[in-house]
Write a structure and sequence with these properties.
352 residues, alpha+beta, 8-stranded antiparallel sheet, 7 helices
Length: 352
Amino acid sequence: MIELNTVYNNTRTPDKPGNAYPDTLRFSFPEVHPQARFDLDFQRTLRIPDDGVDYPLPPGLGRFPLRHVDDFADRLPAAWREHGGVMLPMFQSEAMWLNFTSPDDYPFLVKVAAGMINAVTGGTWDNAPHRDPQDYLVVPGQPWLDGFCVQKGVIRQFVAAPLGAGYTAEEQITGEGAFGGLQIIAYPLKADAWRRISAHTIRISAGDVVMRHLAVEDPGAAYRPDLGLAPGGRMRQEISSDRYDFEDWDLEHSSRCYVHLANSIAWRAITGEAPPTMPPTAEHYTRLGLPWFEYYSDGEALEGSHILDGLKSAAQIDNDSPEGQGILPENASAEVRRTVRPGKDANRVREF
């Protein structure tokens, strides 16, 4: 089951079931286990420079608003109505990252695709997970996903691009821009495996979620109302390998969601709402002395995809395009002066 919470409250108490972040998808499997649930939101962020430098993690600047596709069915393209799911607004060339939270630390196997292209391997979409090579994330353990996994410890940032212009990973791999958006499917751990594992594990409480947030018009109409995701700048981020036995995943239960990306003009026409404002540039953000982030997991990182590593980035395609016909309004390098490691509750004592 997937639920969208659009109740705007300012707090969330993880140990009280039912409380949830606004603009968040909750995947839950009460038929498997009462604790089998996790939350997913989509974070606005800086678009990092695409200049060959491996940048640290940019901040989260707040959640993108999410709306039910079915609530606006009479104003949407037929393909959107067919796929259902939810939608969010993005400006052309805007970046995003996915934020995963597991209130009870219950493990999930999560596959993520952009335009039906697997963001971990570069393979075409299918529902079934695969271990060799691993084509999924494990939550908790993978707090965020910022882009396409191109090398061990390196991703290329998710950057919104118009479908039909040849920028998206989907178009570069398949030759077509038929889908766009994001596709997500989640499988819970089997209940008996969870009971076995949790009985022998000291778990971090849900109140100690790793934080990576900062308290803090459209550059041109897109070719179509929907957007896809192109590879952007390089960023240091590991995709953790699966530490569970593959047989422990409950592949009989799954939930799948299609996340449509509406360009800012289409969002206004569909919902009557203004989209969020454009984030600052990376260069401006850094000039203000604000922090970037470094985070490394304890587990082994995946090697990265040769397919995804072979794609052209948005800036590379811009450089090959006639002057004035690119999608990036700027691509100035940023000199990162301050990085911090996002931590857990500073008052918590680390147990042995």
